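Hi X.,

You mentioned you wanted examples for the new student's onboarding notes, showing what a folding record looks like when two proteins sit in one file. Here is a clean example. The first protein comes first, with its sequence line followed by its structure tokens.
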Amino acid sequence: MFGAANAYLGLIIGMTISASIPASVISMAIIRGLLRRNSILENNMVQTMTTAGEALAAGAIFTLPALFLWHVNPRMLTLTLIVLTGGILGVLFMIPLRRMLIVREHGRLPYPEGTACARVLMAGEEGGKKAKLVFGGLALGGIFKFIEDGLTWFPSEISMRVAGFRQGMIGMDTLPSLLGVGFVIGPRIGALMAAGGVFAWLVLIPMIAYFGQHGGVIAPGTSPIQSMDAWAIWDNYIRYIGAGAVAAGGIISLLRTLPTLWATFYGAIRGLRESMDSNSTFGGLRTERDIPRTLSLVLAVAILLVIAFSPQLKVGVIGALGVLIVGFLFVTVSSRIVGIVGSSSDPVSGMTIATLLIVATVYRAAGYSGMSGMVASLIVGAIICTAVAIAGDISQDLKTGYLVGATPRNQQFAMLIGTVASGVTIGWVLLLLNHAYGFGSKALPAPKAVLMKLIVEGIMNASMPWDLIFIGAASAVVMELLGVESLAVAVGIYLPIHTSLPVFLGGVVRWLVTRTRGEQSEEWKREITERGILAASGLIAGESLIGILLAVLAGAKIQLPGANLLGNWGSLILYLLLAVWLAWVARRVRPTANFRG
């Protein structure tokens, strides 16, 4: 469920959310509430397997839609092989890092999601009550999505022109998932994304329309600017400026990790040597046992051979070596970075961009060109992206297991099971969504995949509009010099303002409900935040699952009866009421003595 939901969400907004805490709460409601079993380790196993779907979805949707945009039309087997090889390698590459990062660095690396999830598991008696928040959000988000996009009683997109701005426009996609994402990521990131949207739609688009009013600026292969509306200018100009900003922001976020990268890579080599020299993986304490080193090594070699010689992947020995060297390097970075800043801030995009720059350059130097070179580069990038996402995720899960007394070996096997279970379905989800909505469309813009596509094309064919790309990159540098996190603003520039404004609204809701007053303590604030995140996760999952259901109906040529009954204002009012509901369920915590400072 969370794998499909994150795939759908990532194709809309270019980011995914952690499924650890919602999965833990639902697991407790079932295992503890229905089955009457009081086992924190079973809940931990369920949570570990569930998060594999979320991480696998991130690796897939950041890259694989580019194959569809090139009209390669990959088969189900090809998609499955890409995500399975990357996901399994992500688990195997993380095994020698566990002792160094999880055990030795305990107390110095907080692993925020993993620690929070352990706290939820330890407070197991609340699982049944808090699971109602997830299921309530899931039902409400699903009903809202079905009425607006299934029965079309009110539009899911509202827009209005802004007087005094040539082609200036603001708008909002009234999607429950975007409101939920805004609450999860918080007011600061939501505000930065909205700032990027305002900059693009009320500054850049009016400027381009103004300077091009006499036909002086013409998009390559298109009509003069004066005949373009705001959406056409966004498609022909702003997307490239935003892509340049996102690429620069991702690389800057990666450069910040260089000291950590070196320390982690050195420690990883040391940990690998100790793992190979030690027999503790076979015996000793239960809480210290990993998957046997021989088995993990054999599996890793077998998967690399599949990558090198598989007729479905066609990346050759160059691709397999790239996965081994670059993949292991970035897995070590991801595993440590998430311990410091959390999975949501893991620079997966930056590492994938760096991977594509390296791999595409090597392929071109080796004589690869045209579509075959681009596809091979992207497949290698997709495998590494999936490995990086899975490694960061299992690091959080292993931290949770360390805190609750789980067996690392069992968690590692659980992650492999979750990876396989999600890997055999994610290809079907991608094929289904592309058939129903089309990647790169307004319904599924697939922002990160479009960016990866542009990078590979630029290296292989030298066909990029580099002036626009460099304008975006320079904008990101200016933001960093001003002390602003450029990546969040860059995503706001790249996406339509219709996407960033509802995310901002969700962040405002979180800011409003978590303001502390007087004697109300930080513990009270954390409780409200956790309740809101559970309800918001339900909204995201509910809308995403109904979105996939509507895609199934569209693929089966089943037309639902519909009529626009409420119009734009009705859509806006209902959406604001949904925001009020989210604030209400989060705020239903009385500041009793337990929450006073």
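Then the second protein repeats the pattern, sequence line and then tokens:
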Amino acid sequence: MRESWRRLMLDELLARAARQAPETIAFRCGAVARSYAAAEDRVRRLANALHDRGVRRGDRVAVMMQNSIETVEAYLGVVRAGAICVPVNFRFVAAEVAQLVADAEPAFVICDEATRDMARGGGDDRLIVATDQVGAGVRLEDIIASAPADPIELERDESDIAFMMYTSGTTGRPKGALLSHLNLIANTMNMFAALEIGASDRNWLAGLPLFHIAGLSGLLPFLYVGGTSTILSSTAFDAAAVADVMERDRITSCYFVPTQWQMICALPGVRERSFGLERVTWGASIAPRAVLDAIAETFPGARMYNVFGQTEMSPITCVLRADLYPDTHGSIGKAVPGVEMRLVDDGMNDVAPGQVGEIVYRGPNTFAGYWKLPEATADAFAGGWFHSGDLVQADPDGFLHVVDRKKDMIISGGENIYCPELEATIVSHPAVQEVAVIGMPHPKWVETPWAIVVLKPGEAAEAGDIVDWCRARLASYKKPSRVVFVEKLPRNASGKIVKPEIRRRYVEDQSPNG
């Protein structure tokens, strides 16, 4: 029997809206629209189908699908069944999928026509549930249609893990961050407060990949209020098509990275169009002043927010209302309600005002730990707070500014690229002796990875060989945009490669000879 005091579970956001506004459109994608009642019926059926096939509380079910209504239904159906949903990046290559599947050990892998071959390369074909027929697998629509629509009654708790979101590993191995129902509901409440979501703001444009924590979490406030989410397909970003959707569907809120906002605002005639946008949101990197000015001119009256966070925090930790504080350009704002933060030194001592420290967090949206990685979890929570890896400084008014990252990471076009993962791939090339990957400025993507490579004595390779090697083993966005061959890498007295020196050299000379 359910306890009446039990707090809201993540999938119950859909059920709640279906009770209150059954005929309201919950999701649009292309020419397809689904009401709350219809979506709730399909989620119930999928949960029953998974349960009838042996899926139990705490089991993992991987979902590798491009953006679609069915993707959201799969996510909610998995957690409704008491299982842990494991979104898989549909840009992965077979080796990455196989590594993730081996680690997560899912009971099933749900995929679509575009991802089925990649999903099949990750494991047992009999565990595949697809939108079309796949070998020994079963069709998603068949099991939904044949399953009962009765509510599934299970023992569940808000502390149960709802999602396992893989982050690129700082050591080359991806880590599964465990997010509970409470974590994601708490983040949703934080978003209401920090982003000032009101009764009139009910049309969300889901433009990010849904396997991203930002893509997933962006939907939740609009499920909570019974709004409509328009889901963009997973094709290459088309600014003109996005603007058409924003105008047609009277979108009130959406999130894009600064590069995408720049492309939208540069469209011919865009400032003469009729939009209903109330909120402009961006993240992943600081928006240049020129982009902010273009947004303000294109969408006059819209509130402008820079959001900051990371997967382990479900994800939002800090928000800046950029249109209210124009003099704080470059800041990530302040901590959102519900998140406690400190700036600390290596000994967990608070740093003095104006000094640089690592930002650490705690709060109900803080993840439960890393899947099967107890040492990494213990390190992440050293001193009782979650260590972000971001080095931050507070200005006299308390606005936070990111100075550097402890983690060796590049953010390119909104995608996290962890240098050790890319380095491990490059050094596995038979001609490579060692490599250092650095982030370099890029006019469109903000940052881009360069690989500084030392070849083994007597070996030869071209830049294209290294790029092709990476493309075959990693998602395409992770490959280096430039490969530079050098005779040796600079090292300090302890033998460690000095990346700041490498970066400094190539920032000063954008046309290196090597």
